[in-house]
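User: Some background: our group keeps a shared notebook of sequences we're curious about, and every so often someone picks one and asks for a predicted structure to add to the entry. Today it's my turn. The entry only has the sequence so far, pasted here. Could you supply the structure so I can complete it?
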Amino acid sequence: MRLHDFRVLTFDCYGTLIDWETGIWGALQPLVAKHRAPLDRDKALEEFGRHESAQQSETPQLRYRDLLAVVHGRLAAAWNVPASDEEHRRFGQSIGDWPAFPDSAEALAYLKRYYQLVILSNVDRDSFRLSNARLGVAFDAIYTAEDIGSYKPDRRNFAYMLGALSERGFARGDILHTAQSLFHDHVPAKEFGLAGAWIDRRHEQAGWGATPPIAGARYDFRFDSLGAMAQAHAGEAQLSA
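Assistant: Of course. Here's the predicted structure to add to the notebook entry:
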């Protein structure tokens, strides 16, 4: 299997293209500052991941920015610190402030020359528009949790994406699903017979961060960054020249 075998790259966004852990941790600082003892960054992110996943299962119809506000309230309660409705709302509105990974824009610009680029993200449309401005590329299709009415790893999200891409003339064998989260993306992608590229953004860190842990996930390619994936694609082209 080669990267050149595919026509479409389908992307998770947050954790893969946008550095959501840095964004989340920054937006949590007002709440963290109220905690009676110092909070470890990774432990706080892991707790965020547990509450986010639970809330997504409980309220799949809720827009992501509104869901984040609820998660902020859950964290405040779990940490036994006061927080106002305005603080919850402000956290939910922070998505547009979350930074892109340093390699994302350049790698996407390169990959755009060879593939259709598609987003499959657990986000709402307005929030994604703010993030898209940081990525500097026009995606060929964007499918959000707001469009679908459920959150990954719900299999409905992948069924929706595959149906939409089929209408555009693409078969499963044309698609390489490119994502950081094994839990949200690679496990369900494999159930649908999709090839996968794991962008292992946490390769230098222990633990799972804001993504719930999962065992036994399978994928076909592994890269430390999207930039490394773009470099591998260029290397394949040189070998075949």
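Suggested note for the entry: The domain at 3-19+99-240 is CATH 3.40.50.1000 (Rossmann fold). The first helix runs from residue 20 to 27.
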